[in-house]
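Dear colleague,

Following up on yesterday's call, I've attached the two folding results inline so they're easy to grep. Please treat them as preliminary; we haven't cross-checked anything against experimental data yet. The first protein's sequence and structure tokens come first.
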Amino acid sequence: MSFFYILYSKLINQYYIGHTSETLEERLRKYLSNHSGFTGKAKDRIVIYFEEFKTKSQAYNRELEVKKWKSRVKVEKLINSTK
């Protein structure tokens, strides 16, 4: 099982879009650990949205699809579609 996910940080008011074949809990734990890099900037990230896929390549393709939108409005519409 693989996941496409969107993280959100209230501190920096920013979304992070990614994919993983790890559990979402493990992936989030790594983001919140001490490290340098883009995701190390904020320690308040939460998984705000996710989709499950059978393969990692399917999850990666979904990540690329959403990133190509380049629209915060469209990303927020996707997130809100499940609420």
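Below is the second protein, in the same order (sequence, then structure):
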Amino acid sequence: MAEVTLVARFIAKPGKEAELKTLLSSVVATTNAEDGCKIYDLYESPGTGRFFFWELWESQEALNAHSVSAHIKKMREHVGDLIAEPVELSPLKAVKG
């Protein structure tokens, strides 16, 4: 099975940066404990209200299971009130050269 690398971008509504950071941070430890998760790290672009998950999964199946996990469903219930635009999911492919 092929590994899957993904970056997910979240942009906070003005004044909601701290709340969004807290919400996103709340799923990191649980997600890292999921079967098939190799890397699930949260990054912030300081002063911009932009947050990024850097994800590496053993397979598409592991990522699919993560997408329907209870903690991610719960996060999705609340994130819409905190973000200025839809979440951007960017699957990545390594460039060899």
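For the second protein, one point worth flagging: The chain has a mean pLDDT of 96.

Best wishes,
A.L.
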